[in-house]
Specification:
This protein is an alpha+beta fold. The chain has three helices and 13 strands, in the order αββαβββββββββββα. The strands form three sheets. A six-stranded antiparallel β-sheet has the order 4-3-13-12-9-10, with no helix packed on it. A five-stranded mixed β-sheet has the order 6-5-7-8-11, with no helix packed on it. Strands 1-2 form a two-stranded antiparallel sheet. The longest helix is centred in the first third of the chain and has 16 residues, at 15-30.
Length: 208
């Protein structure tokens, strides 16, 4: 902490200058000044970290703790979490593309493991345009990164789901370009990951 001590002959100042003097130096005396590790002096009562370092793009003393999810997991549990070290984005493993219905032409990202489908905001894949699709868990599409397969599972919807025009009653494996019909909409499933590609395999090749 830096303490500023000054002595001035206030009587020698005119009234207007005295007011300016008090406003300026009084503010300094009330301030809690600190020198950062880069040499800047700033008021800690106004700033939680050095504003000059921030403006100049320098590293400040306030740091965010980053958790490496990969290093904290067992080898058996390392599925699709390996990207956490380098990215905050869950890598896409496939897509649903609407070819008929209110969302015709729109694509929906599928990520690793389970993706719940419905109209609600809390759904992983939110289909807003079709009011005949359940709000919560109309169905789910899952990617198994160990087996490198996709499966679709019926949810809590009253209406049936059709895969290539066949009703879905139990969990079924999905193949690329399978046709999925739910509500009044039709979708084409397109996979990215599978036998020919997987993010885990890609990462292993880069590390070699």
């Amino acid at each position: 902490m830096i303490i500023i001590k000054k002595s001035y002959n206030l009587r020698a100042l005119k009234d207007i200058n005295f007011i300016k003097f008090v406003n300026y130096y009084g503010g300094l005396l009330m301030a809690e000044l600190k020198r950062c590790k880069n040499g800047h002096i700033y008021d800690t009562s106004k700033y939680s970290s050095c504003p000059y370092c921030k403006a100049e793009g320098l590293e400040t003393e306030v740091k965010e703790d980053k958790i490496n999810l990969v290093e904290e997991m067992n080898d058996d549990d390392k599925t699709m979490a390996y990207w956490a070290k380098d990215s905050r984005v869950d890598p896409v493993v496939g897509w649903l593309v609407c070819i008929e219905g209110a969302d015709k032409g729109k694509d929906f990202r599928i990520v690793s493991e389970r993706n719940f489908i419905g109209r609600g905001d809390e759904m992983d894949i939110q289909i807003k345009g079709d009011m005949t699709i359940s709000r919560k868990n109309h169905c789910s599409i899952s990617y198994n990164p160990k087996g490198r397969i996709f499966v679709i599972t019926p949810g809590d919807a009253n209406g049936l789901i059709y895969i290539n025009n066949e009703a879905l009653y139990n969990t079924k494996e999905l193949g690329s370009f399978d046709m999925i019909e739910m509500g009044e909409s039709k979708f084409v499933f397109v996979n990215l990951c599978g036998k020919n590609f997987d993010w885990n395999k890609e990462k292993s090749q880069v590390e070699k």
